[in-house]
Write a structure and sequence with these properties.
29% helix, single chain, four-stranded mixed β-sheet
Length: 421
């Protein structure tokens, strides 16, 4: 079992490059199932989730070749349409192969998904969307079984904004007969990136990035070359790292337009920001101010940045109120931050954070991906040594994070714990 050991108290300074977005690369890999011939994705991060998705697609018969940050994917020899439990259980995004398999081959059998334990994220909206498109959908023995001779365009309204549901239905609709209208669609930048890929492949899509997406189905899609957008959550995490250590960091190869909800809250907290066309510089030389934050679907404040911003607010001059409106179980990092000296009270979906002068190093346990990042941030500024355990969560979403932090001046080391049995 690996862990990250951090010697706190070192100010971060310098420049760090943002990796490609995991949350964009995964649906793009699934979308390559829709194209005939070999599609190429560039700027793909080297992450555990990417390898898991690649392994799943190879199980289906897809050829996946990696060269540096580039993936070449050919689905011309797909020979099975089942995504097995052993792969899908480790990563929720595996369910995104359902729409492409159903649209191109007319059948799919996909295990119900797993992932981080941050709350209920049912895929019923995905399945209702497929049914509206004319598919027969059944749940049998922990698997989704779907079939259709050819999908037909339909009007689909999502009761709640769902990123995965929008992605899955959007991919399926590209090869459906006629027009599909997706209402209350998710508006995240990753949706726009997926639509850009599909449009290059010959899909007819309008409205991506708004709450109404229109898709005119086509008979087939051609292979494309596409570069994955920057990971806005990784970029935001490094901005918070600069602030929590009272440092000065320039985050490059990112899109500041995707960061506006976070940037506004950092400004409120007193962080000095400079913004260029593809970079953001963050600096802070005093305790941050207490602020109030409510998470919402994009373009609201991202739930994936709630834990990291909470770590920063643990050291604020004042009181902060963090309200989690997206996932009902996303305060599991609170108990670990308390072990480090944070003063946080949770009532329902609201956490009240009373700033303290300092945090103290301690052994802590990561419960999910973004909680892992929050504990690393807290460790950067805590007095003494912090050991973050269960970092396999961290490796699902951050590429070489200890190397990037070390290059900025942090004292961070990955260690392997000896097994007892």
């Amino acid at each position: 079992m690996e862990s990250i050991v951090i010697e706190g108290g070192y100010r971060l300074a310098g420049e760090v490059r943002t990796s490609g977005s995991k949350n964009s690369a995964l649906p793009l890999m699934a979308a390559a199932l829709l194209t005939e011939g070999e599609s190429v994705l560039r700027n793909v991060p080297g992450l555990k989730d990417i390898r898991t998705m690649g392994g799943l697609m190879e199980t289906l018969g897809t050829t996946v070749r990696r060269d540096g940050d580039t993936l070449a994917i050919s689905a011309d020899n797909v020979h099975t349409f089942e995504a097995p439990y052993d792969l899908v259980r480790t990563m929720r995004a595996s369910v995104l192969v359902l729409g492409p398999l159903l649209a191109r081959w007319g059948k799919a059998r996909v295990s119900l998904p797993g992932g981080c334990a941050i709350g209920e994220r049912p895929i019923d909206l995905h399945l209702k969307g497929f049914e509206k498109l004319g598919a027969k959908v059944e749940l049998k023995h922990g698997y989704v079984e779907a079939s259709a001779d050819r999908l037909r365009g339909a009007r689909i309204y999502f009761d709640i904004s769902t990123v995965g549901g929008t992605e899955n239905v959007l991919m399926a609709a590209t090869l459906a007969e006629g027009e599909t209208i997706i209402e209350n669609a998710a508006r995240e930048p990753e949706i726009v990136d997926l639509a850009d890929f599909l449009t290059k492949a010959g899909a007819r899509i309008q409205g991506a990035g708004t709450d109404v997406i229109r898709v005119e189905g086509v008979r087939e899609l051609r292979p494309v070359r596409h570069s994955v957008i920057a990971d806005r959550i990784e970029a935001g995490t490094f901005l918070c790292a600069a602030a929590i250590t009272r440092g000065d960091v320039r985050v490059t190869h990112c899109d500041p337009r995707h960061q506006e909800p976070l940037l506004e809250k950092l400004r409120e907290a007193g962080v000095t920001l400079e913004i260029g066309p593809d970079w953001i510089r963050a600096s802070l030389d005093r305790a941050p101010k207490g602020i109030s934050v409510k998470t919402w679907p994009y373009p609201g404040f991202p739930t994936d940045m709630q834990a990291q911003l909470m770590a920063l607010q643990c050291l604020s001059d004042g009181t902060s109120v963090m309200t989690e409106n997206v996932f009902e179980n996303r305060f599991m990092h609170v108990s670990e931050l308390r072990r480090m000296g944070a003063q946080i009270e949770v009532e329902g979906k609201t956490a009240t954070v009373r700033g303290v002068p300092r945090l103290f190093g301690a052994p802590v346990m990561a419960s999910d991906l973004r909680a892992s990042a929050a504990l690393v941030l807290a460790g950067l500024v805590a007095e003494g040594t912090t050991q973050v355990n269960r970092i396999y969560h961290l490796d699902r979403g951050y590429e070489k994070i200890e190397e990037k932090l070390s290059a900025l001046g942090a004292r961070v080391e990955r260690v392997r714990e000896p097994t007892l049995f």
